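Hi support team,

I submitted a single chain yesterday and got back a structure, but I'm not sure I'm reading the token output correctly. Could someone confirm the output below corresponds to the sequence I sent? I've pasted both exactly as they appear in my results page.

Thanks,
R.
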Amino acid sequence: MVLKYRSRKVAGNNDTVQFKPAPDLKLMDQVREVLRYHHYAYRTEQSYCQWILRYIRFHGTNTHPKDLSANDVERFLSDLVVRKSVSASTQHQAFNALVFLYNKVLYQPLDGKIQAVRSKRSPKLPTVLSTPETLRFFSHMQGTHALMAKLLYGSGLRLMECVRLRVKDIDIDRERLHILGKGDKWRSTILAKPVISMLKDQIESVRQVHQLDLEAGFGHVYMPDALARKYKGASKEFAWQYVFPAKKRSIDPRSGIERRHHVLESGLQKAVKKSAGLASIDKQVTCHTLRHSFATAMLENGVNIRVLQTLMGHSDVKTTEIYTHVMDKDISRVPSPLDLLDI
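Hi R., thanks for writing in. Yes, this is the structure output for that exact sequence:
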């Protein structure tokens, strides 16, 4: 779809200009146009579009969202909980998508507070691996997937943070990784010594692939719009290349440009599941389990929870505190305050 930018001045404010989608586009094309104008991630675009479509189908495909009200939004969100039994986070994601639709696309803000039935599903305690389980798990991981899994466990990365890692984000001399996490917030985390030699080999293989792409007339990599405008030509620089590039070049679904993207996360997800099975680990092991295990092990090794909060990229320490419920608490090693007194 070719973007057709329009703008609209906010009533009563001559200095503020808001984006308005082209009126000749279909509703979902308007949604995509506004999402792209505001530089939402492609995954967010896909998620929001799916929720908006579900909302439309819920009320009947012949009913346009502009003819619906806040009460209709409440009915849809309540149905997700009552009949679908979705989690609180899933319901909140659907709500955000509909707020975006009415505020940014239709210019019909939802009046009042949405009084939908709230999900009462409590968040589950994280699944973590013990040291013996971790050793068995990694004994069945090989190649690039082994390196990626070790980054998740050794540095506390999220799955997509690992997949989207770029060469410039690795500081081998200082044993640090610089991560662009949720909410486009940067953080630094530790780089474990056992993966350094593997990372050096991986970066060298990326350099060779990039050189071949350049010789073939390609070599560009995706960059966010703001950075692409600020650093013209940087998309061909080696430092910006993905550490885990895809085997083949592909067409970008938004720009139509052929370039080499990062690997699909599904490959690592399948490898993790397979290795957990081969290691006879009777737990639901996912890529996020490795991140949970990193956090728990750090607390068990005496790392301050505030330091761990920074390494994990949590905006609220309460999110980090959940790991205190699953860490190994050896009460026999905890002294009584009376033991410390010479009486």
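A quick pointer for reading it: Residues 223 and 235 are 7 Å apart (CA to CA). Let us know if anything else looks off.

Best,
Support desk
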